[in-house]
Write a structure and sequence with these properties.
The chain has 242 residues and is of the alpha/beta class. The chain has one domain: Rossmann fold, CATH 3.40.50.1360. It is built from eight helices and ten strands. The strands form two sheets. It has a seven-stranded parallel beta sheet, with helices on one face. Strands 4-8-7 form a three-stranded antiparallel beta sheet. Bound molecules: 2-phosphoglycolic acid. 2-phosphoglycolic acid binds next to loops.
Length: 242
């Protein structure tokens, strides 16, 4: 596991964009799995700037979501489908996102994970981390060998989406997610964490025991993981890690 600590979220965004562009240079038709959330928004803006300036070319890349809400539609504000349309404007061939209105979400997300495998698997997976340690929608309690499935969202995760859905009541109570094992099959993984509210969970994920209570801690067992943190998110890491 490599730990990179940068001054602020702007620097994290540039570094995240650099790592995505490095993966693309190595493999122009890379399969990228990309996250939603507040954390990656600046990185997506930086990547869109690079595409507009012809500094990056996603034309042959495939982009896949890592999770989506269930019991909504592709146009429901707050869904990942809407997020990707708004923020991931990279001129990529296609962006695959699970359908929030799938009749059988469990079967749908399993087919989605199968499609990723058939397409050759994830070359680079970028992740954020929830304040409760979730990665994608793998909430606390998610086993290392968990696969793509429907999950009950925790109150903390639903609350985090209140603003984009308009109210807490409007946030679906179920999500579809790639499992921890699906994410760990990515050839390389980049985890982004910014801000003081991530400091405690970043320490537990990076330095604590590998446990289902902190699903992000399973990333310790992957051979090629880079954590990119700003100083605020890294504030509780021990001196040896820093
Ligand atoms: P955030 O979400 O980037 O909005 O903090 C991270 C996550 O839940 O994965």
């Amino acid at each position: 596991m490599r730990i990179e600590i940068l001054a602020d979220e702007a620097a994290v965004a540039v570094r995240a964009a650099d790592l995505v562009c490095d993966a693309l240079r190595a493999k122009p038709d890379a399969l990228l799995a990309l996250p939603t959330g507040n954390t990656p928004v600046l990185a997506y803006a930086e990547l869109a700037r690079r595409v507009a300036a012809s500094e990056a070319d996603f034309a042959r890349a495939s982009i896949y979501a890592i999770d989506e809400f269930a019991d909504a539609t592709r146009t429901t504000p707050g869904t990942n489908s809407v997020f990707y349309r708004e923020h991931v404007r990279l001129g990529q061939r296609v962006l695959h996102c699970p359908n929030p209105s799938a009749q059988d979400p469990d079967e749908h997300i399993r087919a989605f994970a199968d499609a990723i495998r058939r397409a050759g698997g994830i070359d680079l997976c970028v992740l954020g981390i929830g304040t409760n340690g979730h990665i994608a929608f793998n909430e606390p309690g998610s086993a290392r060998d968990s696969r793509a499935r429907v999950v009950a969202l925790t109150h903390a995760s639903r609350e985090a989406h209140t603003a984009t859905f308009g109210s807490l009541a409007a946030v679906p109570s179920r999500g579809m997610t790639l499992g921890v094992a699906d994410l760990l099959e990515a050839r390389s993984i980049v985890v982004l964490a910014t801000g003081a509210r991530k400091a405690s969970i970043a320490r537990r994920a990076i330095e604590g025991a590998q446990t289902a209570e902190v699903p992000a801690s399973w990333l310790q067992s992957h051979a090629d993981v880079v954590w990119v943190l700003d100083a605020a998110a890294a504030a509780e890491l021990s001196a040896t890690t820093q």
